[in-house]
Amino acid sequence: MQGLKNLLIPLLLIVLAQGVDYRLDMTQDQRYTLNDNTKDLLSELEQPLKIDIFLTGQLPADYLRLQREITTLIKGMEEHTDQLVVSFVDPFEGTVSTQALIDEMTQFGLPPEYIIDDQKQALEQTVVFPWAMVNDGNKSLRIPLLEKVLGDGEQQKINRSIAQLEFHFFDAFFKITQKQKPTLAVLTSHGTSEALKIADFMRSLQPYYQLASFDLKALENHPEKTLENLKRFALLMVSNPTAAFSETEKYLLDQHLMQGGKQWWAINAVAVNRDSLFNSSGSAVAVGRSLNMENAFFKYGFRLQKNLVKDMYCAPVVLASGSQSEAQYLPYPWPYYPLVKPIQKELFGNQAGDVLIPFPSSIDTLKNTLDKTILIGSSDFSQSIQTPAPIALKEASEKLNPSLFDQKSQILGLLLEGRFDSAFNNRIPPVKLEKKSTTGQSQMMVFSSGAIAENQVDKGNPLELGYDKWTNNFYFNKVFLQQTVHHLMGNQKLLQLQNKSVELPRLDFQKVAQRSDWLKILMLLIPLVILLLLGALVFRWRIRRFGQ
Fold this sequence. Notes:
The protein is an alpha+beta fold. The protein is built from 15 helices and 27 strands.
């Protein structure tokens, strides 16, 4: 009877536990606790969302861990809504040709990830599709399940991906359920970035915002009308202008800022002719550029220096070595291409990668009542050269001299917020406006490189922002710049989730390799010792029980 009780009571507890839907998150970083924004969004879903997850089938160990985290996240989300229809789809099931499958998935914007395993003295390649698709019946969106940052090892990549899982699912749900998008304008006059060169950045913003082009010269004879049109947009983006602004245009931009409009600037204080630099001559002259905005920027509390910042921590440039059939294309460090990490972890989190900022200038800050936040800066091994200055590609093949890079971190990106004073205070304005403001609450971001938001072009098609086709490297430009726009547009929900920090333990393979011999011996001996101890205990018990 006692034995029956011992069997039935545990079985009864197991059955009752199956009906209790409760989880306790004991992790230090609350990894398995959903953000309040995610819970609110899930509870507000009005129609079913079908989610197909393609990361399944025969997966390497690290990707199995990622799959388990995805499953756990899905279960957590299902506790807050019954509108999710989730299925794991093995893309290789029933497939005859792997290459045909890869081509088909790539056409749908779901390229594979190739995993090379060389730990067994033989190269083994595994193909996985780290993607999911969400569909509401009208449109479909991709969900990337793998987060790649330049320099990450395999474990770091998986850990970063796990940390960003909730954001990627929230981001997709946010896009697919958004009913009304706020508007922002992109300046197209004054020689700003060609549409093809900022195509990927604009494309990445379209799911969140209504984008409109704005020509400041369209109604030159009607400044009042131009300002009214400009005030319709919460944010004006100005990418790499090359033509100077007139006094009237500067006044209109000033009034847009004073009357609550926010502004985002990527601007070069120094002009470098890249076509001349990257042609057969391989040289150019960097000269200062004036856009007639200097006195306005000075009034707002910053100044773009007419210099170029060089950094020892930099991206490579690919140069040809040799001639004709014997030519080799090799990467060389190019200090005019600094690689910087976002400084403000409160804004951009701990998951940020390197941002490529070509030919930047330093930014000086001036004392006034505005709050100034440094967004990005060079490393502590930098150098600034005054213009005009010659630049030659052959510098890349010369060995860097660390003693020349003796300047501390220099500001390359800045956020200003608070109550701005008009640059035209105590001055006669160039035109009369019915409504003018001498001060106003607003925000402004400025980056000292006009090319920070420009993508490369291949065969007339824009490549992904942050991708370098010459080195096959991915930089963090697109995600970082998206975050800057989200911050200016007050889209804090996305920033909070994207900046979620998850600390995951990692194996140190170097230590494992160093200690592998005695670890193997230890793992062999421990089971034998345990068996001997158990055997001795059982033998002693038998002696005591049956010895008489």
